[in-house]
Amino acid sequence: MAVRPESIEEWCHLVPHLLLEEGWQTILENGSSSMSCCSSPWGGSLLRIVLRDLLVVDPPEDPADLLVRPETKIWSWQVRPELSAESCTELSELAPGDCVMHLWGRWKMLKLLDVVFGCLDHFSHHATLRERLRRNFPERGDCASVIHDVRQVLDWITFTRRQPDRFYTMQLLCGIPSGIHPTQWVVPHLRLTLDVVRSTAAWYLNMPGCVSQRRFDQTFYVVLTMSSFKRGWPMIPTDDPEDKDVTVIQAGQSQGLANWVQYVPLQHGHSHFCLSDYLQLFLERMGETMPVHQSLDGQDVLPYQCVVAREHWCRMHERFHPAFALQKAAYRRAKGGKTAPKIVEDIAPRLWIARYPVQFGQEWLVKGFGAAWRTGRTPAESPGQTAPSTNNRATLEQDASPSYGPTTSKRCCYHCYRQFLVPFDDVSPEDGSTSFCSETCAERAHEAQRRREDAKQKKLAEMQQQT
Q: SS3 for 105?
């Protein structure tokens, strides 16, 4: 039996036809709505409801922002509970767009689905659930929300994709413990259920306060970017004044930040520099704590960026900037020159986007991702090309990579940041070497990613034991 998935990437890995028409047994079709099912790799069945031509009156500029993060749902429930169809309280924020919470839905469609299929009983009372929001997967502009409970009983996916104009397609998928064998007497109830689900989805996308929710969601986090560290890594406070490489800044004596040394990732258990690791250590040396993240909505930001909640950053503002000014002074004294590392706020996130064409199933999966090209076409759609085999490396592609000349493209290594030129002839959907300058850098970056995922799973396991 397959392991139950927890993210949309894992769902697409275990159910390759998840977002396709093939592989599903049609139960009912009613105009722009349909209901179908298939067997589940981990037992039971999967129910899918497809709702096409849903009108969004005031859609977001970016279609990937149609659904909001679980943190925003919690905020909305606390501010205006009368407008929310679900009550929720936060237990833990694992990452932006990834929360463990108590959730209770009051929708009529949930009761109908539970009566007909017996699949959503856990929404009828407060349950401990984990929700993950993933944007721009598997295509740019897509948005997916994956909910599962800590006991691995409930599975629920909401997936949206924009159509022309202001219309959207929404797919709802849920796991059912047993098989689905609809009889003749239940068909009228299925039609009623499908109509209720469609009307509920249309209300949810246009409910009162949805525009303010999306606006709040877009400003919930602030992206921090470090720049101007061309002469080496930034400085970090130290308690060891006897260190031979220490730089003394007398202006920091009153704050306990007089002694500074260069930050070296390997000395602190990290294989390469990540701003989130550095900033957390910096705050710890200041005597402060604040959650700092290296991902946003299921996508990693570049190592010289990190993500923090705007509320926490505003609270830390007054103390952080004077301390970081001492860091700049120590850097200039130790390295010379007039420039020093600085932190810039509200820079657009630079995301590593892995595009995953699910129509080729598991043959496309390499370390959890598929290789696709920036044109949006899969290799099999291009003349004379076929889908790649599983021997190819995954392609992690930086968004909006600039071009530097008619025959080359300039890239930056994800691990060591060394810039290198790649001929356009070598930049193909079947070549993953453009993400890293060497195999060593690729292996180290993947290992760092695995460690972050292990730490997140460990934190979740500790929370489950406490509850």
A: strand
